[in-house]
Structure formats: structure tokens, C-alpha cells
Amino acid sequence: MSMSSLGRPLQPGDRAPNIALDAISSEGKIALDDFRGRSPLLIGLFRGLHCPFCRRHLAAMAQLKPALGEEGVECLAVVNTPVERARLYFRYHPIAGLLAASDPVRASHRAFGLREVGVDELMAIRIHLPGELPEPMDVMAQTEFLNKKEGYEITEADQQMMAGQAQLVGQFLIDREGIVRWSFIEVLEPGLNTFKAPNPEELVSAASQVAH
């Protein structure tokens, strides 16, 4: 699957591509076309499970799932982690009811126009999390620190996903007809904005408008 033909991340009004990925929480495939004509969908395109911020984004999506479900919106989380590694993680860290899919080659991220960034660009960012980090750290240092703090063990599969270009992430709210109605795109800039999650109230409000 190629990069978004628009040369930018998909925005409200754009048609979402159909993608089919290996399901993590069940056997078989999950495709965006499965939801079309049935329900709106919030899809979160994250980095691999090796990324502590993306694990938090997964948890945040799961926490919002009941409120989104009341609006008739389903949720799908996509991670850049090989499916067997991802299934092992979810087996020991279950997130009840959250659909998840594996995309180690980042095909879905490219299709939605989320760009990759070079290591030098990424390492120029310093992260400061008072109460969690002892001092501002570069991305690799904070990832190592938080993974150790949270007991996440990096495997060979994780190391393969961490090599090379880094991936920016995003979330997209898609209506029943397959049109993007709301989006939240990660932007590289100094400070917390680099890895922040969308505002929950804003997201639920957007979901309500899409569903009704």
C-alpha cells in the first residue's frame, strides 16, 4: 500500500482507504470495509508496543471506548508490532473489548499519510515529564527509562521495529460512509506536544456529531 496520494495526512472530508490487517485480539483479518455501512470508527495508528507513549494511547482509547460506544462508534488500535509479539503482550496485558491489529510494515500509516522521520530529527526532541523522568531526556533515553520503569522487556521483534526511521502517529474518526470527519495528528515539536494524546472531551464531542 502506497503513501497517501495527497502527500499529507488525511483530513476531514477525505475518504479513508480500505486496509486489511492481522487481528491481534482474535484470529483472521480486520478490514476497514468491515465497518462501512455499519458504524463510525475511531482508528488509532500507533508505533509499536515498545513505545511507552503508544501503550498509554492504547489504554486511553480503551478508557474512552464505553463513551464512544454510547455514540455508536467502534474503536480499532493498530500497532507497528509483529502479530505474534503483539498477541503475547495482549495475552499478559489484556485490554478488554479493544479491537487491535498488527501492521509491522506500517502500510496503514502510509495510507493515511502519516510520515516517517529520521533519527536525527527525532533525537533533537527533549521530553520532560515531571514526576516520571528525573530530567529532560531524548527519545531513546526516555523510552529506555520508561520501559524499564514499567517492566516492558524489549525483544528481538521490538528491536527490529525500533531500527531505522521513526513513525509519527495519528487518530482518525471515520463515518459510516468511510469519510474522515475528525483527525488528530502527531507533530514533532519540542515539549510534551510531541507525544500527546487527543483531548477526550473533544474526541467524544466529535464522535457524537459523526454518529448523529
What report would you give on this structure?
With 212 residues, the chain is of the alpha+beta class. The protein contains seven helices and eleven strands. It has helices at 52-70, 83-92, 107-111, 119-123, 139-150, 156-162, 200-211; strands at residues 20-23, 29-31, 41-45, 74-79, 99-102, 116-117, 126-127, 137-138, 166-167, 170-174, 180-185. The strands form three sheets. The protein has a seven-stranded mixed sheet with strand order 2-1-5-4-3-10-11, covered by helices on one side. The chain has a two-stranded antiparallel ribbon with strand order 6-9. Strands 7-8 form a two-stranded antiparallel ribbon. α1 links the parallel β3 and β4 (74-79). The chain is globular, with a radius of gyration of 16 Å. It starts with 19 loop residues before the first strand and ends with a helix. The model has no long low-confidence stretch (mean pLDDT 88).
Q: What is this structure's SSE topology?
A:
Elements (H helix, E strand, L loop, with lengths): L19 E4 L5 E3 L9 E5 L6 H19 L3 E6 L3 H10 L6 E4 L4 H5 L4 E2 L1 H5 L2 E2 L9 E2 H12 L5 H7 L3 E2 L2 E5 L5 E6 L14 H12 L1
Parallel strand pairs: 3-4, 4-5
Antiparallel strand pairs: 1-2, 1-5, 3-10, 6-9, 7-8, 10-11
Total helical elements: 7
Task: Please tally the β strands and state the result.
Answer: 11
Q: What is the residue-mean pLDDT, rounded to a whole number?
A: 88
Q: What is the CA-atom radius of gyration, in angstroms?
A: 16 Å
Tell me the distance between the termini: 32 Å
Structural class: alpha+beta
Give the uncertain stretches in residue-range form: none
Rough shape? Answer: globular
> If strands are numbered along the chain, what order do they take across the biggest sheet?
2-1-5-4-3-10-11
Q: Roughly what percent helix?
A: 25-40%
> What pattern of helices and strands is seen along the backbone?
EEEHEHEHEHEEHHEEEH
